[in-house]
Amino acid sequence: MEDFYILDTTLRDGEQTPGVDFTMEEKLEIATMLDKAGVGVIEVGTPAMGQEEIQIIKKINDLGLKCELITWNRLSKSDIDSSIKTGIKNVHIGVPVSDIHIYNKLKKSREWIIETLKELVTYALDKGCKVSVGAEDASRADLDFLIEFYKTAESLGVCRVRYADTVGALDPFTVYENIKIIRSEINIDIDFHGHNDFGMATANALAACRAGAKYISATVNGIGERAGNTSLEEIVASLKYIGKYKTNFDMKQIPVLSKYVEKASGIKLSKNKPLVGEAVFSHESGIHVDGLLKDRRTYEFIDPTEIGRESEFVLGKTSGKASVKNAMEKLGMKLDDDKISKMLEKVRKGESLEKKKEPLKKLKYKVVGIFSGEIKLPFIFP
Ligand SMILES: [Zn+2]
């Protein structure tokens, strides 16, 4: 039994990122990688989009993955009929629940939502489907109405409900309070679906989990509408390493999954993207390198090899003697203090001179695993 499950929606909400359009091969590969990493559920797509989407989802279903697969549907019978054509009889029905969505987007009423929910869930259950229900824009909905909505869904026999912070409007404190209240009102699993409009999607998901949400919706690299969704890698690592939650998720799959989705989505990761950015385990400053060489934990909270990454030391303007000494020792050269100081001067000067001409890269040396060895020679060393 795991403490939480990831409900990955890279193939559904992630693909809704403007400009992202995965090919069938890419979707099959992403689904396979997600399953291998150990997600609990994959939201595979929206069958109502048409025949092509249905065919792709069928192929994903044919992969015979271990994890649960669900399709995304609007509050419509024809959507559910399209889903059934995929062979996956596990439907998620997304239902707008805030007044902004009910009255201004749908031009309907709260009563209509409850009645149609009853009708549609019953329809899907009668067709032999497993059903989960999502509350779209739950974060801006009236809490009493939201609870009525969830209780209705529970009484109809759905297996799980989603709390969607559709526009990323919440902070972790409110998420915690709201989920705690909902948790005390219903007895089925809650899935938290967050967006990152204020940079709080990961913190919000962590708060939701602490308040009793068992499922966390996420996408690889956090791709998704606007500022994106909760990042799969960020939330899974935060829950494990900060929250101390039990999970069978294979952390070592994170870099390869992230790289693949970066390429397939065309959305470049920033260098300092937590956990997966190119530079997040690079160290240059003299004080930090000196500390790391004495005890890695001084400046790294987790051992990067835990998540399939490696530490890297970079020589540059802020380097100190410990960096140079370590680099030279790795190269098999023992230098006295004076020589190291001279070399450090060169490193610092070299960097500032070279910076102007571009090849900053040349100054880097890489230690694969801080204690293991292997160095790439910087040009500055003879
Ligand atoms: Zn969403």
TrEMBL record:
Does the record bear Transferase in its keywords?
yes
**Which residue spans adopt a coiled-coil conformation according to this UniProt entry?**
none
Per the database record, which ranges form the Pyruvate carboxyltransferase domain? 4-255
Query: InterPro entries given for it?
Result: AIPM/Hcit_synth_CS, Aldolase_TIM, LeuA/HCS_post-cat, NifV/FrbC, PYR_CT
- One biological process term in Gene Ontology: nitrogen fixation
What domain of life?
Bacteria
Instruction: Write one Pfam family the protein is assigned to.
Output: HMGL-like
Claim: Transferase is one of the keywords in the record: yes
Q: Name one GO molecular function term.
A: homocitrate synthase activity
**Catalyzed reactions per annotation:** acetyl-CoA + 2-oxoglutarate + H2O = (2R)-homocitrate + CoA + H(+)
- Protein EC: 2.3.3.14
Keyword field: Nitrogen fixation, Pyruvate, Transferase
Similarity-based family: Belongs to the alpha-IPM synthase/homocitrate synthase family.
Q: Which PANTHER family match?
A: HOMOCITRATE SYNTHASE, ISOPROPYLMALATE_HOMOCITRATE_CITRAMALATE SYNTHASE FAMILY PROTEIN
Its job? This protein is a Fe-Mo-cofactor biosynthetic component.
The protein here is known as: Homocitrate synthase
Tell me what organism the protein belongs to: Ilyobacter polytropus (strain ATCC 51220 / DSM 2926 / LMG 16218 / CuHBu1)
